[in-house]
Amino acid sequence: MNTLNTETDMVSITIDNQAYRVSPNENLLQTCLTLGLDLPYFCWHSELGSVGACRQCAVKQYQNDEDKVGRLVMACMTPVCDGMVISMQDTQSTQFRQTNIEAIMTQHPHDCPVCEEGGNCHLQDMTAISGHINRRYTGKKRTHLNQYLGPMLNHEMNRCIGCYRCVRFYRDYCGGDDFNVFGSKSHLYFGRATHGALENSFSGNLAEVCPTGVFTDKPFSEHYIRKWDLQTAPTVCPHCSLGCNITVSERERKVRRITNRRHDEINGHFLCNLGLFGYEHVNHSERLDAPLLRNNANKNSVILTSNAAKQHLAKLLCPADKDNQGGYLSQATGKYIAIGSARTQIENNAALMKLVGQDNFYLGVPDQQVQMLHMLCSAYQSNRVSPFSIKQAQASDAVLIIDEDISHTAPRLALAIRQMSRNLGINNAAKLGVPYWQDGPVRNIAQTSRSPLAIIASDTCQLSNLATEEVIIAPHEQMLLLQEIQDLLAHKLEETQSLDEAKSLDTSNPPTDSTSDLDSENSNSYPVSAQRIVDALLTADTPMVISGLQSQDPALLSVSLNIASLLKRLKPHAGFYGVTKQVNDLHFGLLIKDETGETNYQGIDSFITRVMGQEGEDSMHNAPDTLIILETDLYRYMEAEQLEAVLDAIENIIVIDQMLTPTAQMADLILPSGSFAESQGCYLSSEGRLQHGFATIAGLNQRMMPWVWLAELTDLSTPADCHHWLSQHFPILAPIETFSELAHINLGSQFRIAGQPKRASARTAIHAVRDVKEQMPISASGTPFVQSMEGVEGFRQSQVQMITVLPANAWSPKWNSDQGANRFGNSSNKSQSPWTLGIKIFSQVSPSSEPAYPDVLQTEQKNGQQTNVSRQETNSSEPTSASIRLMPSANLYADFELASYSSPIHSMSPEPCLKIHPVLAASLKLTEGEQVQLQGEHGAARLMCTFDKNMSPDVALVPNLIFTLLGQRAKIISLKEMGDHDDAL
């Protein structure tokens, strides 16, 4: 709820005889910290607000210049007002803070040398700032038993100082209910009622939220390095599509940890567990380090040098005709085709597309997903809907979520919607004069008040308890309800336009009652839920609609976009968020060839059709000779037997990937690519924000970015060449050229950026048992960062560099903890540099006047894999074992390919199961816990059956990956009914 203030909104205050102009919307503690003053605190957090629990931020406030006595106040609980006179350095407040920190430390074990927070500890910072340096307490300290809290966090309760931050974050902010505080006074225990893994998707943030070492990063513990020995660089999270900003820390060419890199428009202060702990694929034993060539004669693989691999690659792709721009084009013969990747940088797909030509470039997701991505991009480009940022979503006052379980597909967006639900209570408190940062009073006033949140889905979700309207129905019923909402909005728009026209013709004549009668008459034909949802959206000032690709249904996305379009015409500040599936899949929607008026979705299905269609003809030479697969595991999208038949029809298979995936195992030539930590390039988030990520590690051995492997064949020898080629062929991506010249970052300084926080002790000798000498770290080429303490320190960057969110941003004098970077207000980023904020490419398109039902969306709907008519026809019959409608069930820990290589993430992944309503199960004679076989449209699977009475009784839920392989309908058979001869799948 914090907003930037203009100079006219500022007020004057005096702190220790120094005058300042500050914002009146913040508390005194946040104001002091934003001004760069060192005022200690524990319980306060700029995102969690103030509760005044630790009493560590005491200052003296004077009534005026004549007051010489003053009174002690807690800065976190004191609003800033014009003319305020404050002292931080007077004797009374200084002694109060020293006495208070000494009392807090009486029960602390003082185990800094063995604590993993050492050198990165907020408690150490605050103790030093408060001036408490002598230990006088000689009494016996309390002791606690620690708990097992899962694979992501260690627990050491003896270090607790009782600040309550953890429970406030976990329960109040994140909505978790399996963590609490027990006991009273000085005998507090923060943990679970019983041992077990914390269930909330943001539990990993406890390691950062806790100001001491009670909760520490367990995966980091396995390869622990002190903070001052870590080399860091900023990049983008490689998993979901939200584009969260992260800082990668490494030593000895291994990623040691991931920390949040604050971006107020996206991830703010917190990352989900996937972003924090899903990095182990970078260090995995199955990482590819060198090119491999299949030797069929000896039935083994030969390790090649990079030069030999490039020569062999050129040999496979030649002869090929060059176009007038120097690129190799194989569309003349069609013998060379390629499949792009949704989890790699944009530059890599551009190089591969130029190599084979757009006609022979297939997008690495199913055709249906490509279609939906194109629908989103078309709506954004035409300005039909306004894509919101996560910050805008959190500030909205009414939300409609359409069949998208964002808690699993877009977790940081779900956390923002959880905060959005509090906006009504915050506004009610503001009317009573209580500012938003007064956390306790605001929650007291709000009680159960919630901003409107409507959810339409086939199953309940983690946000269900916050929903003011939740409708759990089957997909065909969802379409009917959404069409009714659409009609209500269209009718309201027509009514509004009629009134505007009447007013413009004759403002002296009031409108007749016929319109309101018509509205009343039509309202009776709509379900009560549709009317309530529309009323809530139209009552709000900034409503928004959230939908996405989880349903894998173009028709559902089409009507969702129509609703968002109509809502925007009725409410100019309305927004939309389209959740996609992978980190860089949205830009696929921009790479669509549409020259003849017929959109051609060249996804994996089109690739299969091309290969198998030609392979089925009389001449086998019509099939492509060579296939290049870029960082895509095709086995995640196709049934194995069908895919292997396709691959067998192709003579040469080239795979460029990080991991030895099942697809890579089928390759004749494998080229190792760099991970997100070893690469730099651009990503386009589902919001339409173009961002640049930097490499932290120089590519190990022969790992290279894919465009580098192809550079000699494409004549794209630098990232700038890739950017220029993209901007020429896809003008909407022209802003990518902003990131072409990394040298511009250093224009403001003669020094490069230090990759290490400054420490007088220098680096620790990690191999001291053998040799105190250590190899000099190799800086990644082409970046402005050096892997040493030399260069400009992080805290000075805002003064001398374009980049203000820096790899060493968590260190400044007296503030060694990562929390030091988060002590400023929620709008502390003063830089408007694209290197830190990114570029919203769709905000640059010119507004257009669109009809209530855009023709392009109607065309998309008709061309979809399944139209409304077919949906109604297939769902009209009674459920039988041969016609069960399947729906995909998302899971944060199971759906993202690279994250699955991290053991903490993999251990939290649930066993795949079929979830079904007891009523539907009874009709199919199924019992809970038994194994069933699903015979789908494209494949088969065996799953354990589980019951859920809260879901729709007309569908069955299966995991996302299995849904992709099976299709939308399946025959469900109990294994009891199958004979022993049919026991093997």
Description:
The chain is α/β, with parallel strands linked by helices and 985 residues long. Helix content is 29%, strand content 17%. The protein has a 7-stranded mixed beta sheet with strand order 14-13-26-25-24-17-18. Strands 32-36-33-35-34-37 form a 6-stranded mixed β-barrel. A hairpin with a 5-residue loop joins strand 15 and strand 16 (328-329). The longest helix has 31 residues, at 475-505. Mean pLDDT is 85; it is low at 319-332, 507-525, 615-621 and 848-881.
pLDDT average, as an integer?
Answer: 85
Radius of gyration: 30 Å
Q: How can the largest sheet be summarized?
A: 7 strands, mixed
- Please give the count of helices: 30
Number of strands: 37
Supply the helix-strand structural class.
alpha/beta
- Termini Cα gap: 55 Å
Strand order of the largest sheet: 14-13-26-25-24-17-18
General form: globular
Helix content: 25-40%
Percent strand equals 15-25%
**What ranges have pLDDT less than 50 throughout 5 or more consecutive residues?**
319-332, 507-525, 615-621, 848-881
